[in-house]
Design a protein that fits this description.
This protein is of the alpha+beta class. It has six helices and 15 strands. Strand 10 and strand 11 form a beta hairpin. Helix 1 crosses helix 2.
């Protein structure tokens, strides 16, 4: 079944562009890889003929029709995957997610996610975010470790989501970044949106960006690196990674926003969600949790400090 049909007319300024690049820019919610998949599935037509060439270069006045199918329904199964539960009661679960674990199922990550594990370990999770993301109030990236709050019922979910929206929850991260930050602390206030050139990335943008505020504090300086604490006031996709790259102190190990050649054999960015605080949905009192520095992180700290 079809979800939507998009129709576009190519303007002179866009002539000569690859069709997949052009469509990913026009359809701002869709990635270039998704567009290529639509072409492979026969869902893109140019001048009423089915397009079969992903590298086709568009011409002025080309009529393009994109048939967008309904998203594939995923069945999420409970899996007996070990997870570190820091706190749990009838309303809330706080989990210390390990580096490399995806938060919820998506195409390409059907199993082995935090949601699969939570469905096994918890009897109930909130239904607000549907079958694919039960209980998930906020996310952290696959290769970011640390604390997440999960709602076990809809009332708790609404309360926690409201705190995130109003910037009243307390979320602090630690990170190792390239370069030596001179200021002891500071605030990055720069809007974040989809990167207009590479749709798989986010960027600081002047147009169509959402407010994004990150506070940083230097914990320790090394020769070529800085150990920092970061506090989120907003929660945009890849916010810390984008902001630190924007001020020229990218996270060590970041495959998207970091340096091209890393001398360390890392699995991802050096970013850990260490502190999580919020007002409990039913007890109505502030609670705060802390996660120890994980082994992969402390190991690199020892290296940049010169201990190894």
């Amino acid at each position: 079944m079809l979800l939507d049909i998009e129709k576009l007319l190519v303007e002179e300024k866009d002539e000569g562009k690859r069709v997949d690049a052009y469509l990913s820019n026009q359809l701002q919610n869709e990635s270039r890889s998704y567009i290529q998949k639509l072409i492979e599935q026969g869902n893109v037509y140019i001048n009423n003929e089915q397009l079969t060439i992903k590298k086709y270069k568009i011409k002025v006045n080309d009529h393009i029709e994109i048939k967008i199918p309904e998203p594939e329904l995923l069945k999420v199964e409970a899996e007996n995957i070990p997870i570190e539960i820091v706190y749990e009661d009838e309303d809330v679960v706080v989990v210390n997610k390990s580096q490399g674990m995806v938060v919820h199922p998506a195409p390409g990550h059907r199993k082995g996610t935090l949601v699969n594990a939570l469905l096994f370990h918890c009897k109930n999770l909130s239904s607000i975010n549907g079958v694919i993301r039960p209980g998930i109030v906020h996310r952290i990236d696959k290769d970011t470790s640390g604390l997440l709050m999960v709602a076990k019922n809809d009332q708790a979910h609404r309360s926690l989501a409201e705190q995130l929206k109003n910037h009243t929850s307390n979320r602090k991260y630690i990170a190792i970044v390239h370069g030596n930050i001179k200021e002891n602390e500071g605030t990055i206030c720069a809007p974040i949106g989809r990167n207009p050139i590479d749709r798989l990335k986010m960027a600081v943008v002047s147009k169509n960006g959402k407010e994004a505020i990150t506070h940083f504090k230097v914990l320790e300086r090394f020769k070529n690196y800085t150990y920092v604490q970061l506090k989120l006031e907003t929660g945009r996709t890849h916010q810390i990674r984008v902001h630190m790259s924007y001020i020229n102190y990218p996270l060590v190990g970041d495959p998207l926003y970091g340096v091209k050649k890393e001398k360390f054999n890392l699995k991802g960015q050096m970013l850990h969600a260490q502190t999580l605080g919020f007002v409990h949905p039913t007890k109505e009192e502030y609670v705060e949790f802390n996660a120890d520095v994980p082994k992969y992180f402390s190991k690199l700290l020892d290296i940049v400090e010169g201990k190894k």
